[in-house]
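Hi Q.,

Before the meeting this afternoon, I wanted you to have the pyridoxal-5'-phosphate prediction in hand. No need to reply - just skim if you have a minute. The sequence and ligand are here:
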Amino acid sequence: MNTNMKHNILGGPQDIFYANSNIVPLPLITRTKGIWMYDDEGNSYIDVSSGPVVSNIGHGNERVADAMAHQAKTMDFAYSRVSRHQPNIDLTECISKLAGPGYERVALASGGSEAMEIALKFLRQYVVATGKLSKKKIITLTPSYHGGTIATLAITGDDALDPFIDGFAVKSERIPAPFQYRVPEGHTPESYRMECAEALEIKIQELGAENVLAFVVEPIGGLATGAQPQCEDYVNRVREICTRHGVYLIYDEILCGTGRTGQFLASHAWPDAPGDLVVLAKGLGSGYAPLGAVLMPANMVDHLAGLTGFNFSHTYNANPITCATGLAVLAEYERLDLLNAASARGAYLKVGLEGLAESHPSIGDIRGSGMLMAVELVSNRETKSSFPAEFPPTEHIRIIGLKHGLIIYSRRTANGKYGDWFMVAPPLTITEAECDDMLARLDAVLNDFEIQAAQYMGI
Ligand SMILES: Cc1ncc(COP(=O)(O)O)c(C=O)c1O
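Predicted structure with the ligand bound:
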């Protein structure tokens, strides 16, 4: 859309609200199937990042579409305050079984931010009901992303939001994210992440443990860190610190959970460091319905139910069509063996990306886990320098990607302070042949990008 034409249209697509600089060009998608998206001009694109890492089971799944239609035709809505319904009971049982011990209760929500708010509200309600009223502070990492509502933006670790949040909402207390690609001078990646874990202990002591409600962390970062995975020694230490101080540990698995890493929960990789609460969304509804979930232990939920109860809800929580969709999505995970696919095809793709790095000096780092990876772009691999702000590589990559039939989701956070990267997180249904096709197109994109970058830098 020509941005100069904006004043001539009524309404407009969602992107009409975004900065003009971010929206040109955007294809008009009319059809989707598997890993593919098709636009109104007859172009086809591979969905390199499953949208914002959401379309885990792939597009155009007819079993899920049929389940949705069937639910809409037989029982469209039944409100959870005045009735019960089977899709709700079945979905929560299914999620709880996949999540395992410690997560016997599942509160359903209509997306990630709402689920994160439910997790925070539940914990707050629990400490209020059990007489620990001073527990209010939330600790999060910088950078991090925990949602787009006012409360979740306030706990999101992004200093650029300060003018928006300050005095408007209560900000979380921040400690540094344990980046592993660039570490401060004098540190190894290991010593840095252990220092970052110690920062949690110091922050809790500074605030007083009696005032701290929770530490919220993404097991694998999403678009705030570019798929930076936490390491086992870091989470073990963080778990121990939280337990010792009576601080709840919330894993934000909104993006990295539901099978992306090859296990149902990303935190299943750390048997000694389970979360107290885990928040899921994205892949749980896989783009077919807005669905989020908070996994909680029965003892806390049942204890609270005997006191005040957790009485906050939203109209669409656990609505039948969304529940039926979630059940159909999880059935597809099992039928298509998608957890194993995430590991196997993720490993295959990683080898392919490492192959690209041999001929593309702009690739600084390839990180992530399973089928959740990011490629960091640098102007100099030796110094790990980012590209200058006037040459935003993420925008260039996205636009060149469209030319080569790829829809690429990329990020430059804090004007490149934490690097520039694009996500490689296609639907878990991708085949090896499709991986090869995507890698060949990425090769061509990186060729074009490096020519443009060299021209810009005068090399
Ligand atoms: C880690 C993380 N937390 C929270 C959210 C917010 O989820 P939603 O956009 O569904 O509200 C996102 C979304 O990108 C996310 O990646």
